[in-house]
Each structure stands twice: as C-alpha cells, then as structure tokens.
Amino acid sequence: MAGHSHAKNIMRHKAVVDAKRGKLFSKLSRYIIIAAKNGGGDPTMNLPLRYAIDKARSVSMPKDNIERAIKRGTGELEGVTFDEILYEGMTNGVAVLVEVMTDNRNRTNGEIKKIFERANTEPGKPNSALYLFDRKGFFAIDATKFKDEDAIMGVALEAGADDMKREGDAFEITCDPSKFSAVLEALKAANLETFEAEVKFLAKAPKEIDVETGKKVVRFMDALDDHDDVQNVFTDAIITDEMAE
Question: Where is the TACO1/YebC-like N-terminal domain (predicted)?
Fold first, then answer.
C-alpha cells in the first residue's frame, strides 16, 4: 500500500527504546544468544549471528558482552535459557504480534497480559492474528546512498529475493526466510549496506486507520516494547508520523 514503509515504521517505533542503551544491549545479547544457539558460534558460517554482532557493534556494545553472549548461545558458558514466545492480539480493530525472549515464561505471561488489559484487550489464541501476516526476510537499504535501483534489484533477485520496492528514502527487499542468509551474503558481497536486515512479520494487507486510533495503537505498542523481554512488536496498521508524535 502506498505510503506504508515497514522500515520507517519499525525505526520510528523503536526510537524510544533504542535510546535506552542498557536495555538495547540486553535485547541484542538475546539476539546473539539465540543466533549462536541455532547456528553455531562462528559468524563466518552463521550469517544471522554475523548480522547480530554487526548490529551490536554499531551501537558500541562492548566486545566482552558480545563474546559472552556467543558462548552462552553455544553452551560454552553457563547462563539463563531463553524461551521464544509469540503473543497475538487485537486492539482498536488492528492486529498486533509480540515477539518475546524470556528466562521466566510464567512471569512474562502475567506481565504481558497486564499490558494487554490496560489497553482493554487480551492476548488471543494461536493464529487469532498471525494469519494476517507473512513471515519474511526483510532488508532496507538507504536509497540516497545507494542509488542504482536496477543493480540492487539484480543482486537481490539473483540471490533469491521475492521483491524489491522503493518506499521513501529506502529500498525494501523481501524474501522467504529460507533465503535470508543467501540474500544477506549477496548484499554484503556487493558492498550494499543495510540499515535493517532481519526475519520479521509483515502485514499481508496493511490497514489504514484514523489518527486518534493510531495514537492509541502506538501507545499500546510502546508499552509492550518497554517490557524488557519484548524483542519486536508488529502491527497490520499503517502508522504515520502524526500518530507517533
């Protein structure tokens, strides 16, 4: 849908959270732990881990923190075990998905439920909102810095991407999650820097909402994002700058 930028929305939504450096380090550590657990501790052989490390370095996360997170993921260091949970729900007529990594499922369940209740809603049953989204590999490239759209599209499609489009000042590339590592490697090999690269949920049919409803949705998403265990929050609503003010 015109005017709907997934990259812009996620950047806007995370701005407040990312300003809290200690919390950001905690979230990035969990990304690294999970990536190392799933694919091993060698970033040359584990592209999701390499990206997680690059992201951590970009915000000056200490090297020791990164190395500890890798070793916890591989089991070389003892530490807490994280469970990954997906919460689904509806608020003000729009769908919301919440990705969580927690070391205490019962505690997190109770706390997330309270956030939903304060928004006059509750977590839904499995697939109550999930069916409105696709799980996709997603990449965003600064179109003001890398301007050759045809060349970028060629690299992405050859590596297995499904689509590429321009949204504002960004080229947004999507692919099947199984192709994520191949597309990321191809972009890196072509020296095409991404300011976002992750597997995430994208709305199948982004929904236009009015400003007042949008402000309520943003407040709800911000409350979720402020929780230490929440890694990502997604919605099928189109969030504008005015709603996020």
Answer: 5-76
| CA-CA-CA-CA torsion sign (193, 240, 22, 101) | negative
Same domain, 187 and 102: no
Q: How many domains does the chain have?
A: 3
If asked whether residues 125 and 87 sit together in one domain, one would say yes
In angstroms, the CA 100 to CA 55 distance is 19
Q: Are 158 and 186 in contact (CB under 8 A)?
A: yes
Task: Please say if the pLDDT value at position 230 is more than 90.
Answer: yes
* 40/51 same-domain check: yes
List Cβ neighbours of 142 (8 Å cut-off, separation of 6 or more).
Answer: 169, 170, 193, 195
Which range is least confidently modeled, 19-28, 49-58, 187-196? 19-28
CA atoms of 241 and 245, how far apart (whole Å)? 6
Indicate whether 91 and 70 sit together in one domain.
no
Q: Is residue 160 domain-shared with residue 199, that is, in the same domain?
A: yes
Same structural domain for residues 175 and 227? no
Question: Of the candidates 125, 126, 112, 119, which has an alpha carbon nearest to the alpha carbon of residue 93?
Answer: 119
Amino acid at 180: F
Note the Cα 81 to chain centre separation in Å: 21
Helix (H, G, I), strand (E, B) or coil at 135: strand
Token representation of residue 109: 């369940």
Which pLDDT tens digit goes with each residue over 123-171? 999 999 999 999 999 999 999 999 999 999 999 999 999 999 999 999 9
Q: What residue numbers bound the domain in which 123 lies? A: 83-131+205-244
93: left (phi over 0), alpha (psi -120 to 50) or beta: left
